[in-house]
Specification:
Layout (H helix, E strand, L loop, with lengths): L4 E7 L7 E16 L9 E8 L11 E4 L4 E8 L9 E5 H14 L9 E5 L5 H6 L9 E8 L4 H5 L7 E4 L6 E3 L1
Antiparallel strand pairs: 1-2, 1-4, 2-3, 3-6, 4-5, 5-6, 7-8, 8-9, 9-10
Length: 178
């Protein structure tokens, strides 16, 4: 798909009859930080298609259709700031299709489950990183497995429980430290 590209948005805003709106796709594979609980910490980065569509209550969940009539996304959100108008986002259809398949097959979305509780090592004091966990000084990012949930996939694989740290250093992307 070329950028910019035309699209049609199928919508039923404000409980009005369904209608279409034409617009421009201005970006593919955009990443939008999402803070679910408004604590200032990004909980997830959404991969989206950026449009100039007016996404309003009632038309999120509608189809984003290219000029060939193919559904290419599902309208999901907009930037809600007074000084910003006409920036909408849609979830790409390739990310939506597995969810639809799960809903059709199981009646719910099946998510991966390991059965562990994690703690970001940046939340652990420097003293405990060095003295308790004995982390190398060049470790700046990582997570500590603090608990394995009983009868979970993780509990079946690792007995007895030994804390693990998954981290990134400047020279290596992923290490497993016990």
């Amino acid at each position: 798909m070329l950028i910019p590209s035309s699209f049609n948005l199928v919508t039923a805003s404000l409980r009005l009859c369904a209608f279409t709106r034409q617009g421009i796709i201005s970006g593919l594979e955009r990443t939008v930080p999402i803070d679910f609980n408004q604590d200032g910490v990004v909980d997830w980065n959404a991969e989206v298609i950026q449009t100039d569509a007016a996404i309003n209550p009632g038309n999120s969940g509608g189809a984003l259709v290219n000029i060939a009539g193919q559904v290419i996304g599902i309208n999901s959100m907009k930037i809600a700031q007074q000084e910003i108008k006409g920036i909408g986002f849609s979830i790409p259809i390739n990310l939506v299709e597995p969810i639809i398949e799960d809903l059709e097959l199981y009646g719910k979305v099946k998510r991966p489950y390991m059965g562990v509780q994690l703690q970001d090592i940046s939340e652990i004091s420097a003293y405990h990183q060095e003295q308790t966990l004995k982390l190398p000084k060049d470790v700046k990012e990582g997570v500590l497995i603090t608990k394995v949930v009983p009868n979970s996939p993780a509990s079946e694989k690792r007995k007895p429980f030994i804390p693990l740290i998954f981290m990134r250093t400047k020279s290596k992307h992923l290490l497993c430290y016990t």
